[in-house]
Amino acid sequence: MADAPRTGIFTLGRLRLGVQLVMLFVTVWGSALVGHYAAEKISSSLPALSCAYDQADGAYCVLIPLQHQMHHRVGELIQQTGQFALTMLLPLAFTLLAFYVFYFFLGKAFCGWVCPLGTVQERLHRLGRLLRRPFRHLSEDAVRRLRPLKWVLLLALVLGLPLAAGLGVTPHATGDAFCQVCPSRLATTLLTGDGEQAAIRTGGVLDFALGALANTLFGFVVIASLSARQPFCRICPLLAVNAAFQRLSPMRLVKRPHDKCGKCGICTKACPMDIPEIWHESGPKAFSEDCTLCGRCAEYCPDDGVIQLKFGPVRLFGSSRPYYKARVKAESPQGETRTVRWFPRKDNDA
User: Fold this and answer.
1) Measured between alpha carbons, how far is 103 from 127 in angstroms, rounded to an integer?
2) For residue 41, is pLDDT > 80?
3) What is the CB-side half-sphere exposure of residue 73 using CA atoms within 13 A?
4) Where are the beta strands (DSSP E) in the chain?
5) How far, in Å, CA of 246 to CA of 100, rounded?
6) Which long-range CB contacts under 8 A does 303-306 form with residues at least 24 apart?
7) Mind listing the domains of the chain with CATH numbers?
8) How far apart are CA 77 and CA 75, in angstroms?
9) Distance between CA 187 and CA 179 in Å, rounded?
10) DSSP bridge pairs for 308
11) Of 85, 152, 271, 281, which one's alpha carbon is 20 to 30 angstroms from that of 3?
């Protein structure tokens, strides 16, 4: 077996894994550190899926207040007063402002480094590689066909149905329609040992249907993650929210033109979202709305300085051929792992 990369103890991938594990603990079990009541007040505008139904979490994702405000503040007030007032949008504006304060520093890296459901999917995919499950790579056509779905879910489940519930058009249960079916609701609560959210709901036909859909979607995500990378991230409405703000954050990936680009395609093979533009384009066009700033494309680019992770003008990480050659000794671009040593082996080791 090949040794681990001799590029230092922490590669970018290992750093990201460490951040993911820390944030998984904070977002799923965070109240163990600060207490449940304080945890509720840390954030209700996190740009990553963190479920309010998890009684031990450390923050809530922005989709929760978005739904509640569309339901209770906008929809119900319009129904009661028969008019639309600017003051109805003030809570929504403050939620988005709080969201952007978080988002400014890491941008879409909240998806690739912080989101607990993203971490769970990555760990399941790694398990699939260990179990030798067949690897499923999405074609360029499939990737492009899936992209609109996250916007449809955002408009329908996060904004449309909660507003309709507030107006009295749809049942009250649709007031947090996305939360009712979100796989993160089951994933994070099950991680705390709470099986209540996975139980069959018997409150009515709609409750039963939403519960059945939630369990079905969760089961699909678990099974699909063993073979395909990040199956739910591709249609996640929070990724759509983050994509709408992606040009406002100084944290970004950049790619300069290079005469070898368009030939090897290793960057797209390494991308968990199978983004074809990384391979074919340069500049802002290389990183589509699906990019989660995980940085794997920069890690696996075999040419010096072609792809860089930057915060404003500051270069945080850049591709290099020596790094690439060492990286592929431990893990292939598609995630097939070899023997990995976290600490370089000394020459006198047996």
Assistant:
1) 30
2) no
3) 18
4) 251-255, 307-311, 314-318
5) 10
6) 303/258, 303/260, 305/256, 306/255, 306/256, 306/258, 306/261
7) 13-240 (no CATH), 252-329 (3.30.70)
8) 6
9) 12
10) 254, 318
11) 271
Burial class, 51, CB count within 10 angstroms (exposed 0-12 / middle 13-18 / buried 19+):
buried
Q: Which residue has the tokens 């929504």?
A: 92
* Neighbouring C-beta atoms of residue 97, cutoff 10 Å: 10
pLDDT in tens, 108-166: 999 999 999 999 999 999 999 888 888 888 888 999 999 999 999 999 999 999 999 98
Residue recorded with tokens 């290099």: 320
Per-residue pLDDT for 281 more than 90? no
Residue with tokens 């007040």: 41
User: What is this structure's pTM?
Assistant: 0.86
Residues with Cβ within 8 Å of residue 179, at least 6 apart in sequence: 51, 52, 53, 63, 64, 67, 185
